[in-house]
């Protein structure tokens, strides 16, 4: 009985959480005219208070929104690839840097190792708004403002990956390391032949978490990029505003699809990653 | 759905997006209407009249027959250009010679009559005059004798009476007689002159080889006789259009032209037959009928024929209007209202977009190519130049070529 009640409650909660996605999906097949009549009062902040309510199903199924987004807005597709380039670079970079750093912090003994690691963790606790100014100054000093590198480097050297992978690498038994050392392996060989293969799943988890985090980044490109042609898609959708809300649903769906597909593909790693990190993606 | 299928789906998704990205610019260019834009400028309008009309000679010369003379040959044809001295008709030499002889005789008779009248004129009222002088002298003598007491008063009064009667007779009847003779002389003189002129005309024809020639430059309008006919005096033989007085034409245009043209304006005209020859005409009269206006024009040229038509082209500039746009940019709505498509550059999240907005305008004046407007657009606003060639939507996106 308890199980049934819990299932119903969870089911209802699931419906509530999935409703925005369903609304976006179905409204993306609405005629732009219907979208305008449905949501104009909300978007433009009309004072007469007339609101017809949310409509899930369209009156006529139309691909006009997709046509307008995919065929009449070439800039949208360029922004899509801006997002892909930045996120892919961050994921690859951070995986490489984090795995090496995590190995160092977990398996290599050196003086003040724990102290440095805790300072590292401290940085992770600081919100973005605190670190943005020093990051901006450094990027400006190196001439990286209005370039992709200003965002990629910030993402690559983020602490989260180090923290996540170190947690796992600490669990790898020392015997593997010692056995390898006895066989004459150096640190690099131990890292590449023992640690990395054993950390595959966690690296995959890290990659999925990073994808979800950086695919939706808004503040970093807004601050570090000046040229709108370099903006990622997340920034476009946040600025879609009053003028283009008639195509916002189709744009959102196109934007969401890669994340959904990659989540479905790597679901196991995502759950594993969240469990081990103790953090929400 | 297993991992493999999801993986393939993901790859396909990215491939489709990649293909669309590569083709996006081409697809975008194909799908949006392409426009040419222009800015509003101040300019003058050109009023153009392009009308065709027939022409008429301003003056015609009619050549009539001399007298009972047979026409042997006709050289003139309708619409033939003629110059001074060109032969028109050949008359019978026999008839001409006969006429000359006849005229000379008549002239001689008149001259003889004139001599007789002159003699009579010289005589005048001689008899009455002599009688008057005689009675006057007699009276004067008697007066002298009376004063000398040689004759009686009665005798003097009788002579005075006779004198006065003679005087009266002389003054009234005598002068009347003189006047009658003078009238006869004048009449005779006129007859002589007339006959002389007639004779001179006939002699001219004879001297010209029995030919009637054109006295003016012009074109033959009509030939009203034929070979073998007798050309009586006063009968019309031929009509010639006098090119020295020009050719007139009338065109009817809109009353708007009164703002641009006035009497004595020079205008260009084209005769289709003489299209390589530039000609000009003058507006000599304008008649206003309210909505339309008649322009009477005169074309001065020796080359025209009455069968020609004239293509009148008149171009004049109006006052300078603040906003003038080409008519290719002007569209007309279903209710007769005019509008243009104003171009707007809008900053959107994905960058600048070019949109068009339907803007109603008020048309003040138009010529063949342009229109002057006064509301709707601002000076230096951009508008779609080829609005009548593309299909546009209000606030629709376009590409500027």
Could you characterize the architecture of this molecule?
The complex is a heterodimer of chains A (281) and B (401). By secondary structure, chain A is an all-alpha fold. Chain A has 15 helices and no strands. In chain A, α4 packs across α8 and α4 packs across α11. The longest helix of chain A is centred in the first third of the chain and has 34 residues. With 401 residues, chain B is α+β, with helices and mostly antiparallel strands. Chain B has four helices and 24 strands. Chain B is elongated. The model of chain B has no long low-confidence stretch (mean pLDDT 86). Chains A and B meet through α4 and α14 of A and α1 of B.
Alpha-beta content class of chain B: alpha+beta
State the low-pLDDT regions of chain B, or none: none
Poorly predicted regions of chain A are none
* Major sheet attributes of chain A: none
What portion of the residues of chain B fall into strands of 2 or more residues? Answer: 35-45%
Structural class of chain A: mainly alpha
What oligomeric assembly is this protein in?
heterodimer
Quote the average pLDDT of chain A: 85
Which key terms come to mind for this protein?
heterodimer, A: 281 residues, 15 helices, 0% strand, B: 401 residues, alpha+beta, 6-stranded antiparallel barrel, 4-stranded antiparallel β-sheet
């Amino acid at each position: 009985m308890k199980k049934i009640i819990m299932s119903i409650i969870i089911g209802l909660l699931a419906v509530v959480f999935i409703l925005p996605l369903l609304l976006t999906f179905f409204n993306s097949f609405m005629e732009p005219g219907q979208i305008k009549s449905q949501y104009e009062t909300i978007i433009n902040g009309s004072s007469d208070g007339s609101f017809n309510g949310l409509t899930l199903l369209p009156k006529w199924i139309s691909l006009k929104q997709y046509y307008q987004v995919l065929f009449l807005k070439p800039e949208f597709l360029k922004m899509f690839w801006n997002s892909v380039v930045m996120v892919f670079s961050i994921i690859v970079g951070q995986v490489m840097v984090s795995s090496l750093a995590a190995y160092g912090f977990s398996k290599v003994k050196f003086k003040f190792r724990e102290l440095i690691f805790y300072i590292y963790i401290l940085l992770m606790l600081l919100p973005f708004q605190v670190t943005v100014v020093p990051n901006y100054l450094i990027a400006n000093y190196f001439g990286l403002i209005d370039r992709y590198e200003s965002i990629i480097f910030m993402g690559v050297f983020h602490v989260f990956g180090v923290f996540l992978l170190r947690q796992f690498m600490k669990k790898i038994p020392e015997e593997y390391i010692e056995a390898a050392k006895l066989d004459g392996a150096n640190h690099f060989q131990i890292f590449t032949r023992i640690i990395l293969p054993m950390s595959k799943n966690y690296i995959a988890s890290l990659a999925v978490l990073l994808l979800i985090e950086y695919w939706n980044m808004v503040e970093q490109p807004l601050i570090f990029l000046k040229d709108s042609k370099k903006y990622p898609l997340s920034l476009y959708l946040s600025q879609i505003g009053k003028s283009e809300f008639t195509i916002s649903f189709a744009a959102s769906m196109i934007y969401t699809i890669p994340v959904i597909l990659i989540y479905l593909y790597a679901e196991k790693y995502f759950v594993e990653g969240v469990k081990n990190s103790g953090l929400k993606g | 759905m297993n991992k493999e299928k999801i993986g393939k789906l993901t790859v396909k998704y990215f491939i489709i997006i990649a293909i669309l990205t590569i083709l996006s610019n081409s697809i975008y260019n194909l799908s949006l209407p392409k426009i040419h834009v222009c800015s509003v400028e101040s300019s003058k309008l050109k009023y153009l009249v392009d009308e065709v009309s027939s022409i008429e000679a301003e003056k015609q010369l009619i050549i009539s027959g001399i007298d009972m003379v047979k026409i042997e040959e006709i050289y003139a044809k309708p619409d033939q250009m003629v110059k001074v001295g060109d032969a028109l008709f050949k008359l019978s030499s026999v008839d001409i010679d006969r006429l000359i002889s006849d005229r000379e005789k008549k002239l001689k008779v008149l001259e003889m009559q004139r001599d007789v009248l002159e003699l009579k004129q010289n005589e005048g009222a001689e008899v009455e005059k002599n009688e008057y002088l005689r009675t006057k002298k007699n009276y004067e003598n008697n007066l002298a004798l009376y004063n000398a007491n040689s004759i009686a008063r009665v005798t003097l009064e009788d002579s005075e009476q006779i004198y006065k009667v003679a005087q009266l007779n002389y003054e009234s009847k005598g002068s009347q007689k003189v006047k009658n003779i003078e009238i006869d002389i004048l009449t005779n003189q006129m007859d002589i002159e007339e006959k002389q002129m007639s004779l001179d005309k006939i002699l001219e024809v004879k001297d010209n080889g029995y030919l009637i020639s054109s006295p003016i430059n012009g074109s033959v309008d009509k030939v009203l006789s034929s070979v073998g006919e007798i050309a009586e005096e006063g009968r019309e033989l031929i009509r010639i259009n006098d090119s020295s007085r020009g050719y007139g034409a009338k065109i009817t245009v809109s009353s708007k032209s009164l703002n641009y043209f006035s009497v004595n304006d020079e205008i260009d005209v084209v005769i289709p037959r003489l299209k390589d020859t530039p000609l000009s005409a003058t507006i000599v009269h304008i008649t206003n009928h309210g909505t339309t206006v008649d322009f009477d024009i005169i074309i001065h040229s020796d080359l025209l024929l009455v069968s020609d038509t004239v293509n009148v082209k008149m171009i004049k500039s109006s006052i300078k209007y603040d906003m003038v746009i080409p008519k290719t940019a002007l569209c007309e709505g279903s209710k007769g209202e005019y509008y243009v498509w104003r171009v707007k550059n809008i900053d959107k999240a994905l960058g600048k977009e070019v949109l068009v907005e339907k803007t109603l305008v008020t048309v003040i004046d138009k010529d063949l190519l342009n229109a002057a407007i006064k509301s709707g657009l601002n000076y230096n606003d951009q508008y779609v130049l080829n609005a009548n060639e593309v299909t546009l939507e209000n606030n629709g996106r376009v590409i500027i070529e």
